[in-house]
Amino acid sequence: MEELAKLTPPDVMPEFTQESFRPLLPPLRTGKRKLLVFETVHRRRDGSEYPVEVHLQQVETGGEAVCLAIVNDITERRQAEQERDRRAAIQEATPDFIGLSDLQGRAIYVNRAGREMLEIGAEEDVSNLAIADYLADSARAFVVNEAIPAAIREGSWSGEGALLSRTGREILVSQVILAHRGPGGEVEFLSTIARDITERKRSEQALIESSSQFRTLFEASPDAILLIDPHDEWPILDCNMAACQMNGYTRDELVGQSVDLLNLTPGDPNERKEYVERIHRQGVLRLDTFHRRKDGSVFSVEVSTSLITLGGRDVVLGIDRDITERRRAEEEIRRLNVELEGRVAQRTAQLASANQELEAFAYSVSHDLRAPLRAIDGFSRIILEDFGNTLDPEGKRLFDVILTNTQRMDQLITDLLALSRVSRTEMQSSRVDMTALADSIYHEIASPEVRRKFAFYVAPLPDASADPALLRQVWSNLLSNAIKYAMPKAGRAIEVGGYMDNGMCVYFVRDNGVGFNPAYTNKLFGVFQRLHKAEEFEGNGVGLAIVQRIIHRHGGKTWAEGEINRGATFYFSLPAMEPNHE
Questions:
Q1: What is the mean pLDDT of the chain?
Q2: Looking at the structure, do residues 432 and 518 belong to the same domain, yes or no?
Q3: Which terminus of the chain, N or C, has less C-beta within 10 A?
Q4: How many Cβ atoms from other residues are within 10 Å of residue 57's Cβ?
Q5: How many structural domains is the chain composed of?
Q6: What stretches of 203-283 adopt beta strand conformation (E)?
Q7: Residue 368 confidence (pLDDT)
């Protein structure tokens, strides 16, 4: 500790010099900035360096203003970010569709190939897209009612389906759906890998339509194609060159042999009969399995089978694709996901611990700050009460300034603690009658005298699934602002409304007050951001920041519209309730 006490900031932060570090302090000393957060590197005693996040603020201790720096080692966070970027690079580089969705069917992520396939803009936010909207009519019911439940039940599902682009183009795909489970075993989200097989399907159709064209495509196909007699031992009637190369046999060695030559285990006659019946019912069957080459090596294959008519008899058309590399890619993605989830869980726990320590520190600092504030306030009042008669008007005015500013400082500490608690309070969601809540909050915060000066209207609002206590704070802050900024205007009016928009419940509070300059809209929800002078309107610029944090915790957004002297409208959105939510 003695060695540390002798060091200057540039000694431990090699990116800074005395000259470059000194300009950081005046905004804190003058009060323009309450907290400065930045990332840099620290140097240890042995000369090694590591990344850190620094929280720098000015506090008073023992009557002296000092700079307090809270330093967090972010080495593991940086490593986790690099691992995340590596996984993202793999997903973005693959030519196949890769997507993630939640259990409600809303998209979380779609890679570059998927966006191109569905004709989604490269920068477009996919969080409001419903997966069902991008499934073709021919595949939607099966994927929603059978494929996804099977993936959730078994861990994965593979099969063929059809996607629908924004311009209505139907894309036939071969896809895998994976269910990702959390530490407790519950499914947290789904992922899918899909390959466009539209051209392959067209090739299959061309094989059926023309025998000459069939032979040309049969031999030219890069996939292995087998024609199999669905009777007795399922002998191979014909195969293309790709099938020979894939399995290591010549055509003469394959034709006439049972398909069991390629399978790891012999087929059961009853299972084969049932298999043919399933092809009749479903048209095409697809499965991932393993084949054995002539040299005994085993490899992964994707097998698509259908029935065609050749020479007046039914023949099984089998199209095999070597998916060894795809399997490796899937396993790599699984491994990276598991590793990343572990890192995220570990980091989340560390951040939760750090936040608890920071909150405890904030309470301690607030107590240390409030004690001298209360002393200043108390002794000032005593002087005014006991010696007020001996003070001239200027002396009384100065004491009034002291009292006003100590009360303002106390309120600022209270607001900061409220902002800190919003991010850490455990949410207890339930059904909330937003119409009744907004109306009751207005009547609580507006006195009868104030209500007589306002025209207040609440339209029927959609119910919400949220934490009632936190929503009370949202409505209270927004309605208080509306009253405050509309008070100087004549014909004061406040309107509360709501509507549904793309699966989100949108609510708004509109007033006809002093409004704001729309050029500064981006500053409205920042901490300590005020667009009006303190002497015009009271407040510390924390209320809207609290609103934004609460709404973000619920998965929603906040925004505002306004013009100077023409009023303002503040919006927030929440995810719509599920149909059977109670």
A1: 81
A2: yes
A3: N
A4: 15
A5: 4
A6: 224-228, 236-239
A7: 65
